[in-house]
Design goal:
The protein is mostly helical and 169 residues long. The chain has one domain. Helices cover 69% and strands 0% of the residues. It contains eight helices and no strands. Helix 1 crosses helix 7 and helix 1 crosses helix 8. It is globular. It starts with a helix and ends with a helix. 37% of the residues are buried.
């Protein structure tokens, strides 16, 4: 995936499935954290490689950091977001600021797991199942265009369902 945004779409669907037990903010934070690896490697070496964090142990480590250290900045950002909204906008766009433990951990682990799986389909150098399996059996399962469209459609569907859920509540 080109640096993170496509990853956010599937997160919207996860949020629909269990809105109280899934933090989309922590999910997004985990996705950004995991993509710091190829960004930094690109800056330092010119090669946006995925050697460590895009593996099962790396994703677990990033999820732990995101769930623990990411809650406070995510809660602050959600509070800031709510303060920018008018009363009318808050009805549709306002969000709960406090992120519970289950929501933080679920968002973090779903964020990193989905990230390495999606990147595993797209990038040959990702080893999502290392150290249990060498190589990348997922690379090229679908075309990059199909993968990106699936992420966009997941986002549109997720946001639509979230809007319907918000309206009903």
């Amino acid at each position: 995936m080109p640096i993170t945004p496509f990853h956010f779409g599937p997160g919207a669907l996860f949020k629909c499935a269990t809105p109280e037990n899934f933090s989309w903010a922590v999910f997004a934070f985990a996705n950004v954290l995991i993509d710091l690896e190829p960004i930094l490697l690109f800056i330092l070496t010119g090669d946006p490689a995925h050697p460590w964090l895009h593996t099962a142990p790396g994703a677990i480590a990033v999820a732990i950091v995101a769930a623990t250290a990411g809650r406070w900045p995510c809660e602050w950002l959600l509070g800031w977001w709510n303060r920018q909204l008018s009363q009318k906008q808050k009805q549709w766009l306002g969000t709960q600021v406090v992120i519970g433990n289950i929501a933080a951990w679920t968002g973090a682990f779903v964020g990193t797991a989905s990230h390495i799986l999606l990147d595993g389909v797209m990038h040959a150098d990702v080893r999502p199942f290392w150290p249990f399996l060498q190589g990348n059996p997922m690379q090229g399962l679908v075309s990059i265009e199909q993968l990106q469209w699936a992420c966009v459609l997941a986002g549109v569907l997720g946001l639509t369902l979230l809007a319907i859920m918000k309206r009903k509540s």
